[in-house]
């Protein structure tokens, strides 16, 4: 330092001290110390800094501004007005960096450190260096407002870390010690003088003791209750001993055995932090040997950041105790979401290293479907006992607490599904094709810094897409999934009308028997016959082979109609989509549709019998009113059944089918396919009031009651037709005699007698039965419509709209209430 | 294959529309005029067996019987590209070849005489199927063969096949101008009696309305016979489409008509079709949603029967409606359309029983391209049909009052002694009209009592 400069400083200090010479010396000493402390000036020349700035521009793709900056800087250089060029540049760079970090949500982005080194430095005198900077600027006639200075303070800390990779700790501490030595030499006179004044034997004793204490070693000779020591020193001692306590705490945690890969990484990281701490202590110890180099106060300043660091580490270590895997990561991540840049800087390497095992598990799982997780830390767990059939559903479960909080649920599910798909392909589809996924595993930090880089997300998505696309192609091409869906619609949901109609024709006699007298082999041969003659014969062989019958649970009161169901057999991967549970649902649906179809069949049959007998009826004019009632009733029932059927066709089957088709087209992974299928099945069940809802059960009961009445009506019509046929048969002789073609004479009286004794009573009972059925049917339909009105499902309510399109029932109910 | 349908084509008109019908079916199923399956017809979800059967060499033969008393039309068919389509054994022309001379009685008498031969063919055809569901009869009610012989066959069919359904596509004559056949009203009334008593379902094709539609919709000043027949074949193929393309519903004739026809006599159906285009005119392509189609079907101008909405203080209404929608349809549209139609009260329904617009979906043939996304056919039972019968009866009454042109009838056995058959037929038609009018009121439920009362009085 030039003498003129020293004189200038002295003058300045004199002004500062209001000409009080007793503190002048001290001030000058401090100021000169400050002025010569080069800490914080990481950049020895502006070329490296400029290089940084270029890179910064390039990183954000602002090439235009970069050029401009270059021009301005060149001009500034030429002018030579600015003496503190390096500092200004540094300041500007720091500003730019804050601007960009503020831009992002997460505040720190740093390249991965080569080691966790540098965490414990001889403390940075950042504040001091700024003061130096500001004094420099003052000298140069520049004025900065305080906010600038403040921001630069934190920035310099930042800068300090940014360059960690360049300056390894050793060289740095070395640098510092040399700097300090230099300082020492340079300021030999002043510093020596002051420190020799302050330091006595006592202090050096305390210092030595403290260095042990700070490593968690018992220091019985050092007591805070020691009255020989002044209060100020005592409080400092307490502070340093806290260090020791923290150190000990962390060490204990490190020494607890852990059964977790993430935990091991965590502990390894903690130990290396402690190692750094040790290194710091040893450096201080070294310094201690040089007299006047270390004082309690100096130590206090130096230890400021390391203490914070230790505190932070201890707190984290404490909260992480007993945790493993994703939970541990979640905690670390939670701590990292902190405004304090120190804490952020501590957690970054921690998170980085601890995420690696989980990252590796994820990559192994989504690329190969293998779970390499000896300590149950991964968020996908496997159950080896689960059979192939249930693989997709139960073998792999998502351990939600183990999902690190920086991985979203959506990502976790995608990861889960990707690995499941691979296993599904391997185990269930027996497909051993290795998918060629050219993807380098995402870096560890991209997992917990997703706002900053989409690398991780990209990796998941691309592997997910590739895998699920392949699985879908296997399902579609090799296993003809869509064909089976269509076959289900045609057979289990009665879409193949001609086959169903014919099947019913063939099975009618068989199914009218009691359920326990219906045998599978009889029905089976009938079904085969139906397949042979209807359009089902053009179906692919595979589908025909799968068609089967199933007889449901038999209770003594049931008829064949109630127990017989079409079934469709599945094997291999299809069993995962069409599970046993779904098969049972389909059977329930089929049973219902089959029942409604049977009603249609019955009403059509009744209609045809009535129509075809109408000429016979006409020859007995006495019954024309009854016949007319039969026709209007038949019409009412036909309309009801048709209405239900049209409702089923449109609102239930076709709507859900077109829905399902759309969803299946869009579905990417098997999970979505299953979901779509499940949705559609549930929708059908609800709309067919088979969902077990209370109102639905009542509706189903009521509908059954209506159906029973229709069957009842059918049998009455049979009786009526039989009766009319008998009568006409009996009349024949008389009529033929009447026309003179028959020889045997029949008394007209006998004819009248027969009419009164046989036909009339029969007709009377039929008539009263008809009347009962008619009334019961009306009431039942009205009740059914009433119930529909209150059903929670809006679609079911539309059934009542269909059934009562011309508002016939409402009209009749009001007229009844008025009469 | 169950539920086969045998088509009987009678007389000039019957054979002409039948011919068009087969042409249409062949096109829809991808069958060549020779009966061979076209190479492009690989989409196998259609049921060809309802209307065709396969010969030993796998070529398709229509389940059709062609009958006529004069050779002109059938000869024409036999010269057309479709000559090899039909089974030659099923083509029957009376050896006499003189025709029926537009005389119902002549046709009826001839039918009586040729009974054995005709029913040999029909029996054979019926035995050919696994379980024939019914017969479809194509004829006109105005001429001689279709009406007279048709009437005879209707009666016989009922006796011979008491369990089979009988559906007819009956062309009704023009009533708004001077008829080219003077005895047309006689023929019509006599045939109407058989249609009423012996058919299970009659689709009425009103020549007056067909001409009007052809003129208005197809923008033709004088539509040709072929164009009219094309309209008819469109209706016929449309109304059988659900039988030919199996789906959840309406896979057989009975399920199709049972809900349309409430009582035995009220079985005269009107039909409508939209959109109608002709082959040679480039028609404007309109928006065709389900609602549009359903709404247009209800418009009188699209209905193939000219009916009055009101007559003799009676407001006519629909007994039932069935819409068959073909093409790409979003199933959820149907419900919305029905709601809209009810809101706007676009259709009146009977007050004595439940009635609704039933909508059936049917596949469109993949081999025929149309400009329209959706097309629709309506089959409906409307009480207004009685006004058509009324007009026929008006003409009939004018003639019978003078006993004009009855000589030709008296020559034949049925009318040798008296004209009772005329009066009887007129009475049946009157009852039919009365029943249709009665069906517009709530009291129709008691119609049986009324009838019983009448018979007791007489």
Automatic annotation (TrEMBL), chain A:
Keywords: Cytoplasm, Cytoskeleton, Microtubule. InterPro entries: GCP (IPR007259), GCP_C (IPR040457), GCP_C_sf (IPR042241), GCP_N (IPR041470). The keyword Cytoplasm applies. GO terms for biological process: cytoplasmic microtubule organization; meiotic cell cycle; microtubule nucleation; mitotic cell cycle; spindle assembly. One of its GO terms (molecular function) is gamma-tubulin binding. One of its GO terms (cellular component) is microtubule. Its main location: cytoplasm. Residues 482-809 form the Gamma tubulin complex component C-terminal domain. It comes from the Eukaryota. It is found in: Cytoplasm, Cytoskeleton. Belongs to the TUBGCP family. This is Gamma-tubulin complex component. It comes from Rotaria sordida.
TrEMBL record, chain B:
It comes from Rotaria sordida. Pfam families: Tubulin, Tubulin_C. This is Tubulin gamma chain. It is found in: Cytoplasm, Cytoskeleton, Microtubule organizing center. InterPro entries: Gamma_tubulin (IPR002454), Tub_FtsZ_C (IPR008280), Tubulin (IPR000217), Tubulin/FtsZ-like_C (IPR037103), Tubulin/FtsZ_2-layer-sand-dom (IPR018316), Tubulin/FtsZ_GTPase_sf (IPR036525), Tubulin_C (IPR023123), Tubulin_CS (IPR017975). One of its GO terms (biological process) is cytoplasmic microtubule organization. It comes from the Eukaryota. Belongs to the tubulin family. PANTHER family: TUBULIN. The keyword Nucleotide-binding applies. Residues 249-394 form the Tubulin/FtsZ 2-layer sandwich domain. Residues 48-247 form the Tubulin/FtsZ GTPase domain. Its main location: cytoplasm.
